[in-house]
Amino acid sequence: MKFIPDPCFQRARLAPEATAFHTVADGRTWRFVDVERRVGRAAHWLLSQNLVEGDRIAILCHNTPIFFELLFACARTGIILVPLNWRQTSSELSPILADCAARILVHDAANETLAGAIAGDHACPCVSIGELDALFDDPGPSVGATFWPTDRIWYLLYTSGTTGLPKAVIQNAGMALANAVNIQQATGIDATTQALNFLPLFHTAGINLHTLPVFLAGGMSHFIAKFDPEVVLDLIDSGSLTVFFGVPQVYQALSLSPRFEQVRFAGVRHWGCGGAPISASLLTGFLARGVSICNGMGMTETGPTVFLMDPAHAAEKIGSVGKPQLLADVRIVDAHGADVGPGQEGELLFRGPGVTPGYFRNPEASAAAFTLDGWLRSGDVGHRDAQGYYYIVDRIKDMYISGGENVYPADIERVLGACPGILEIAVFGVPDEKWGEVGHAAILPHPGMALDLAEIRNMAREKLAAYKVPKYFSVVETFPRTAAGKIQKQILRRQLMEAGS
To answer: Is pTM, for the whole model, over 0.90?
Structure first.
């Protein structure tokens, strides 16, 4: 087992007076020395609750620096933090709380009712963040810096599974360090960096893109409780941010703001995107404002950073997720596990210090996730070009077979997504007596725009092979999504089939 010095203590020693965190709503700031002091109090509180190494505590909250104080305190004590999805219902969260066997549930004021509903099912005591905030600020007993084992479980992130109980992905300090190296060298994060924490904290991006790497580098993170496009645009326009990371839905919301053409974007030196595919039209719309969005790809299971486009080639290589970053090893293999060459499609496999060791108390799922020689199966089909840039074709599970032909919905989505008036499109397979499966295209129009489905169908016939042209087209008002902004196609398929669309 390997160990690293406690980063909270190290940062407080290197730059005690520098600002680590800032909450936008009230202007409150945390210096690195403040974080170190409060983490010591938080660690003492954890141990005072008769928790021991390996015990779990759950947390249900919107974005706040106190989350990171608890996260660091857990690393200091060996207790495991389990962030919960506040977008889910009590019936969805209750089995997760049971699965991780949390001893305590921490919650903020906004989620007090939901916390009480799920904790009551399991006799799990609740503690408010407001109460802990005051406790961490008071002088009193404290647990000093410790060395963190790099392979000890630090926290668990439950995947947003579409069937069955989500799996708890193990995260450890070694993964966090690998991600920090990958993202820092790709984006230039350093002690002068100012980032924004707004993506949900129950998702890997909320923790690791970019807040934790920024903290490790000595930079500052601003916090807003939840995504608000106007507040985000205010921060960008004022020059308060130097790096930015969002999922495609975030960039879409920013582009739809009436202020989009007037906002000054020049203060942000790096723009990152991931979590779901981003459309070419959205990328080109930002390019017109001088913003080069660097598309990337990773998984909760990879910490998450694997790929990220470099700014110099972002405009030239639209559609690419870039190259594997410094501590990520990638293969593309065919159905027999053999490596394929440039231009050939296959499944992406990952290896490196950023990859999870597996799923918490789920050896079957852990074994299924890896090849016999230790490579993580991504479940994504991709290819790389002659210059070494990678492209994601689609999820293997999203592929359907129509008349004996393999159809990747992403191919259709890229073509039809360029139609005027289409804001976003999702294609999936549905049963068909003649062809086995056919495509169903669900279309989200630009606000206030009417769509001519016959014209869209004609365009599909002109630009796609016949077997790829969807048989069905539907206009929708919204898409069901995961926290990362991915469209939940299984839910969408069920909704449209139940509605008879």
So the answer is: yes
